[in-house]
């Protein structure tokens, strides 16, 4: 009874605190007592100190009108499963659908968007915005890349209109990241002018082919090309795998990859080729061709370079993955931060109102650094897209290295953010309707496809080492991959870091450069030490994996910071930039391990991170509003979660 | 014009037990909301919120209109005389009033027995219960509807429609499919049956039964939405849509009005027209082509943006209409429009508005000449010394 009395007292106090209209506190008020009710953060928070629209523009960077239109199309269609929760419509996946239903609805959605003219000109139109759209279609991208005019005329329009449904057959059961090792084999029959494609063994079956299990009519298949007994390496061919009625073509066998931990709306399949014959013209011949009489012709003589040229569309895949990972992080942060601005827990003093989650410094520390990183990586994503769109043959190496590093770091960041946001939402994070858990499932695979993150990071370090070796050997300055800072004298980090220097762009840039420079030196030294002991270059490299890992991160963090500094145009972004750098210093043990930071400096940095949290806190709402995620794509806990869970919604 | 007691006369107030009935009383002007009326309504609503003896508010109009929206003619008169600040003040008050209604703790029953336009829709759709009758006609001057409206009602101000109306883009964007785009861009009129079908009205009651309904609500003496809903339910029925209702054409509307831009919407309609002879399609195309290109583009953008983000999601019992949210945002667009017009050519306004010119000369005159950047200006942050961001009152009764 005492407890009941106490509770009543607390309720009464809450009523008085937050509810100036005491007159309405009659019987109805008890059923909706204010301590358990919802105040929109727009009402409770201070108005934003910066223009949210301009910030959103800066963050999204391009095609804003297109995006908003697409959002509108999705929200207004039953196909995207709109649900009314707490007075707002949310488009949510239907979690009770089976894999087959999810696949079916995916195709219907594509058809719906197609019918509304969404894909018009995605592959055939020119210009920056069109280039951005092109990134979305991998198979079309492959045709565009490797194909020449004859392929473009015949296939691109049809792909854009989904008259043919393409898929991209590269990965095999036995070979994923190591594309050069794939076992599918193609020979040329000069009598009929046809290529003959074969799956020679079970490990050569194509695996994870998106769209293959149910829908695709055509595929771009990657295969070794064997001409007159000589293996010319990996090439790409267009092959029909189903007829117009959806029946699998002769000599093709297709099976399903089965249920997955995410992306069940995508019908990943497996394909076997049994002497499949295709016309000679179906070789995507931008890199190499075979003459009618069976002569192998290629402008690129070096097979390594030829292979590199074939890997180009994977770059486009990495670009889209890196960017979409950041949008997933944005969704989860917008949900978790909005929730933390409306949900309270525990009172500090016995009779005080409970405290907003985001007013706890510890909660700020969990979410706000991730928000700052997401801002940083958002700019990195924009830079990567720009780099990709403006690609030239000279930029291939840069694009490969930057896209590898960014893809790995951004997708890892996303998964970490999702987990933290899930936990920050407490039990509500467990509900699928609140999205974050579902994003974890859907985005998990991003660390694997289009290049395993660990492999990609090793490639970054490998490429840096190659630059290093070349520069040292020729005794020439560095001029690529952003390594120019290595030509300058080694930056000096103050042994007693002050608060103002910790926040200066100069120090922040210096310490990231210092880490990269020192790790590259160490890595080169370690590899050559192993080589001096008689190890091959490859095994020396494998043995130096620890430094390779640290170096890959150092390069990528430094590159991200530079994109941030280029985009930075106001104080709030400077604050976020400082947070991005200082939290990286706080979290990455390399700075202490190799002595870039003294222990005192590390302590200063840690204090500063906490201080930055409290400085960013008042901007939290405006910062998540600037992420540009429409309300309908967030979730009930981001808005009136009391109304969304009220008894009246149960009755309806 | 208004006499000293005219201020109260423009809104009649009846107290019937725990119910307050507010009647908009400017029948000659179709109850267009004057500055006086807006202030008075705001005052009344705020007072009733504090008064524990009030349980329910009924809002209705005298004469053949519920409310013909804001008194835009007066505002534009001010504007053309260089007194733009007073126009801004007017809109600010109107938005505040709508915001208060949208976040109101007590149920509001709006009886839409007649014409509802623009601001009138704003004043009613944010209430929990919206009753249509066989006399209801609703339209939004999101765009100019010069010929049609002025012929019908001889209402010069309805010819303006240079900008989207109070919260209209918010609730238009919540109509099924792309019906909101259709209504907003073409200025199509909806009758009571259509209002009910698309969700603008919550009930349909025969006009002759309204007095009985009022009595029933008064004797119910309740604030409980469920009780009120069931009382209204006893008087209401679901009428048939008229044969040529646009609502029957939801498929074509969804197909065409979902397109990315105004140009593409018109092109899609023209493709439909080529495929089948349908007067409805050709008159829809006509009305789009007659409208102000700038206003079409602003309207489309504001509906689409209104669909994506509600700035304040005011909580209330499962009523999505109550999310007044967009008020702040729309206020900015509108006021921005006024400021831009102030800088631009105020003559353009007058020609359309006050001189009843039958052939308005739009600037720019062609849809394709209105660039995204020009539309952007209406949505951008205002940097003006005279500018004060719209400050919405802290709602003490926000749950």
Automatic annotation (TrEMBL), chain A:
<dbReference type="GO" id="GO:0055088">
    <property type="term" value="P:lipid homeostasis"/>
</dbReference>
<protein>
    <recommendedName>
        <fullName>Acyl-coenzyme A oxidase</fullName>
    </recommendedName>
</protein>
<dbReference type="GO" id="GO:0033540">
    <property type="term" value="P:fatty acid beta-oxidation using acyl-CoA oxidase"/>
</dbReference>
<keyword id="KW-0285">Flavoprotein</keyword>
<dbReference type="GO" id="GO:0003997">
    <property type="term" value="F:acyl-CoA oxidase activity"/>
</dbReference>
<feature type="active site" description="Proton acceptor">
    <location>
        <position position="450"/>
    </location>
</feature>
<dbReference type="Pfam" id="PF22924">
    <property type="entry name" value="ACOX_C_alpha1"/>
</dbReference>
<keyword id="KW-0443">Lipid metabolism</keyword>
<dbReference type="InterPro" id="IPR009100">
    <property type="entry name" value="AcylCoA_DH/oxidase_NM_dom_sf"/>
</dbReference>
<dbReference type="GO" id="GO:0005504">
    <property type="term" value="F:fatty acid binding"/>
</dbReference>
<keyword id="KW-0560">Oxidoreductase</keyword>
<feature type="domain" description="Acyl-CoA oxidase C-alpha1">
    <location>
        <begin position="314"/>
        <end position="465"/>
    </location>
</feature>
<dbReference type="InterPro" id="IPR046373">
    <property type="entry name" value="Acyl-CoA_Oxase/DH_mid-dom_sf"/>
</dbReference>
<dbReference type="InterPro" id="IPR012258">
    <property type="entry name" value="Acyl-CoA_oxidase"/>
</dbReference>
<keyword id="KW-0276">Fatty acid metabolism</keyword>
<dbReference type="InterPro" id="IPR006091">
    <property type="entry name" value="Acyl-CoA_Oxase/DH_mid-dom"/>
</dbReference>
<dbReference type="GO" id="GO:0005777">
    <property type="term" value="C:peroxisome"/>
</dbReference>
<dbReference type="Pfam" id="PF01756">
    <property type="entry name" value="ACOX"/>
</dbReference>
<dbReference type="InterPro" id="IPR002655">
    <property type="entry name" value="Acyl-CoA_oxidase_C"/>
</dbReference>
<feature type="binding site">
    <location>
        <position position="171"/>
    </location>
    <ligand>
        <name>FAD</name>
    </ligand>
</feature>
<comment type="similarity">
    <text>Belongs to the acyl-CoA oxidase family.</text>
</comment>
<feature type="domain" description="Acyl-CoA oxidase/dehydrogenase middle">
    <location>
        <begin position="167"/>
        <end position="276"/>
    </location>
</feature>
Automatic annotation (TrEMBL), chain B:
<comment type="function">
    <text>Hydrolyzes 3-hydroxyisobutyryl-CoA (HIBYL-CoA), a saline catabolite. Has high activity toward isobutyryl-CoA. Could be an isobutyryl-CoA dehydrogenase that functions in valine catabolism.</text>
</comment>
<feature type="domain" description="Enoyl-CoA hydratase/isomerase">
    <location>
        <begin position="19"/>
        <end position="379"/>
    </location>
</feature>
<keyword id="KW-0378">Hydrolase</keyword>
<dbReference type="InterPro" id="IPR045004">
    <property type="entry name" value="ECH_dom"/>
</dbReference>
<comment type="similarity">
    <text>Belongs to the enoyl-CoA hydratase/isomerase family.</text>
</comment>
<dbReference type="Pfam" id="PF16113">
    <property type="entry name" value="ECH_2"/>
</dbReference>
<dbReference type="GO" id="GO:0006574">
    <property type="term" value="P:L-valine catabolic process"/>
</dbReference>
<comment type="pathway">
    <text>Amino-acid degradation; L-valine degradation.</text>
</comment>
<dbReference type="GO" id="GO:0003860">
    <property type="term" value="F:3-hydroxyisobutyryl-CoA hydrolase activity"/>
</dbReference>
<dbReference type="InterPro" id="IPR032259">
    <property type="entry name" value="HIBYL-CoA-H"/>
</dbReference>
<dbReference type="InterPro" id="IPR029045">
    <property type="entry name" value="ClpP/crotonase-like_dom_sf"/>
</dbReference>
<protein>
    <recommendedName>
        <fullName>3-hydroxyisobutyryl-CoA hydrolase</fullName>
        <ecNumber>3.1.2.4</ecNumber>
    </recommendedName>
</protein>
């Amino acid at each position: 009874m005492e407890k009941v009395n106490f509770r009543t007292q607390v309720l009464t106090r809450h009523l008085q605190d937050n509810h100036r209209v005491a007159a309405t506190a009659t019987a109805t008020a008890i059923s909706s007592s204010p301590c358990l009710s919802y105040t929109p953060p727009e009402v409770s928070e201070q108005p934003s100190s910066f223009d949210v629209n301009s910030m959103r523009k800066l963050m999204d960077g391009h095609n804003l009108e297109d995006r908003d239109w697409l959002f509108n199309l999705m929200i207004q269609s039953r196909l995207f499963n709109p649900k009314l929760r707490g007075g707002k419509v949310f488009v949510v996946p239907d979690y009770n659908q089976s894999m087959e239903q999810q696949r079916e609805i995916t195709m219907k959605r594509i058809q719906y968007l197609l019918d509304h003219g969404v894909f018009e000109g995605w592959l055939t139109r020119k210009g920056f915005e069109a280039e951005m759209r092109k990134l979305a279609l991998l198979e079309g991208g492959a045709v565009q890349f490797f194909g020449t005019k004859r392929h473009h005329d015949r296939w691109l329009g049809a792909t854009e209109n989904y008259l043919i449904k393409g898929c991209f057959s590269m990965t095999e059961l036995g070979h994923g990241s190591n594309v050069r090792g794939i076992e599918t084999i193609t020979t040329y029959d000069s009598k009929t002018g046809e290529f003959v494609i074969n799956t020679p063994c079970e490990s050569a079956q194509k695996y994870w082919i998106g769209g293959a299990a149910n829908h695709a009519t055509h595929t771009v298949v990657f295969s070794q090309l064997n001409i007159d007994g000589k293996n010319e390496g990996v090439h790409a061919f267009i092959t029909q795998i189903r007829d117009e009625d959806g029946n699998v073509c002769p000599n093709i066998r297709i099976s399903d990859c089965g249920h997955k931990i995410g992306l069940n709306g995508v019908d990943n399949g497996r394909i076997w080729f049994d002497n499949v014959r295709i016309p000679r013209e179906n070789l995507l011949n931008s890199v190499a061709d075979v003459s009618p009489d069976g002569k192998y012709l290629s402008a690129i003589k070096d097979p390594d370079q030829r292979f590199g040229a074939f890997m180009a569309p994977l770059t486009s895949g990495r670009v889209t993955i890196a960017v979409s990972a950041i949008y997933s992080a944005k969704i989860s942060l917008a949900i978790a931060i909005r929730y933390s601005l409306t949900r309270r827990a525990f009172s500090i003093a016995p009779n005080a109102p409970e405290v907003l989650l985001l007013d706890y410094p510890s909660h700020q520390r969990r979410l706000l650094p991730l928000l700052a990183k997401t801002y940083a990586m958002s700019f990195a994503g924009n830079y990567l897209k720009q780099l990709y769109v403006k690609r030239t043959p000279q930029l291939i190496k840069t694009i490969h290295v930057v896209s590898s590093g960014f893809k790995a770091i951004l997708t890892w960041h996303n998964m970490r953010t999702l987990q933290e946001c899930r936990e920050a939402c407490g039990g509500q994070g467990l509900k699928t309707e609140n999205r974050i858990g579902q994003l974890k499932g859907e985005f998990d695979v991003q660390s694997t496809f289009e290049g395993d993150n660990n492999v990609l990071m090793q490639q970054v370090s490998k490429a840096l080492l190659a630059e290093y070796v070349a520069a040292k050997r020729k005794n020439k300055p560095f001029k690529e991959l952003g390594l120019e800072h290595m030509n300058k004298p080694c930056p000096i980090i103050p042994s007693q870091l002050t608060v103002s220097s910790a926040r200066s762009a100069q120090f922040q840039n210096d310490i990231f450069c210092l880490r990269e420079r020192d790790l590259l030196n160490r890595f080169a030294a370690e590899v050559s030490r192993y080589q001096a002991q008689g190890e091959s270059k490859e095994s020396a490299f494998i043995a130096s994996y620890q430094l390779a890992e640290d170096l890959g991160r150092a390069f990528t963090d430094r590159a991200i910071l530079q994109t941030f500094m280029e985009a930075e145009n106001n104080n709030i972004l400077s604050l976020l930039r400082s947070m991005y750098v200082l939290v990286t210093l706080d979290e990455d043990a390399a700075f202490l391990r190799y002595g870039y930071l003294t222990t005192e400096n590390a302590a200063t940095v840690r204090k500063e991170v906490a201080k930055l949290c409290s400085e960013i806190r008042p901007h939290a709402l405006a910062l998540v509003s600037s992420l540009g995620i429409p309300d309908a794509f967030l979730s009930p806990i981001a808005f009136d979660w009391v109304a969304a869970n009220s008894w009246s919604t149960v009755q309806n | 014009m208004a006499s000293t007691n005219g201020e109260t006369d423009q809104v009649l107030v009846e107290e019937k037990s725990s119910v307050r009935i507010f009647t908009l009383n400017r029948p000659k002007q179709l109850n267009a909301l004057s500055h006086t009326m807006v202030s008075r309504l705001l005052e009344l609503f705020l007072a009733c919120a504090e008064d524990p003896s009030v349980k329910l508010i009924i809002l209705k109009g005298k004469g053949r209109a519920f409310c013909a929206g804001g008194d835009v003619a007066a505002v534009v008169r001010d504007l053309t005389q260089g007194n733009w600040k007073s126009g801004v003040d007017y809109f600010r008050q109107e938005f505040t009033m709508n915001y208060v209604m949208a976040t109101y703790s007590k149920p509001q029953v709006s009886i839409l027995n007649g014409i509802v336009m623009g601001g009138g829709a704003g004043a009613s759709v944010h209430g929990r219960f919206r009753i249509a009758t066989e006399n209801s006609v609703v339209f939004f001057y999101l765009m100019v509807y010069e010929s049609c409206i002025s012929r019908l009602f001889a209402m010069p101000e309805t010819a303006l429609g240079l900008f989207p109306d109070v919260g209209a883009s918010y609730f238009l964007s919540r109509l099924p499919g792309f019906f909101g785009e259709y209504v907003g861009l073409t200025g199509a009129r909806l009758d009571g049956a259509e209002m009910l079908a698309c969700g603008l009205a919550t009930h349909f009651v025969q006009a002759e039964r309204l007095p009985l309904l009022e009595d029933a609500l008064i004797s119910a003496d309740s604030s409980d939405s469920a009780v009120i809903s069931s009382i209204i339910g006893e008087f209401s029925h679901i009428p048939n849509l008229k044969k040529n209702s646009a609502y029957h054409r939801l498929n074509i509307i969804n197909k065409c009005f979902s397109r990315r831009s105004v140009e593409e919407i018109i092109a899609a309609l023209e493709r439909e027209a080529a495929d089948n002879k349908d007067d409805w399609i050709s008159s829809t195309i006509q009305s789009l082509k007659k409208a102000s290109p700038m206003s079409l583009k602003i309207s489309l953008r504001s509906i689409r943006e209104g669909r994506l983000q509600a700035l304040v999601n005011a909580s209330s019992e499962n009523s999505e209409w109550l999310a007044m949210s967009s008020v702040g945002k729309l206020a900015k667009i509108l006021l921005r429009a006024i400021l831009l017009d102030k800088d631009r050519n105020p003559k353009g306004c007058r020609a359309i508005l006050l001189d009843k010119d039958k052939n308005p000369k739009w600037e720019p005159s062609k849809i394709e000449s209105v660039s995204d950047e020009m539309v952007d200006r209406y949505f951008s942050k205002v940097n003006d010394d005279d500018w004060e961001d719209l400050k919405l009152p802290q709602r003490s009764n926000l749950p």
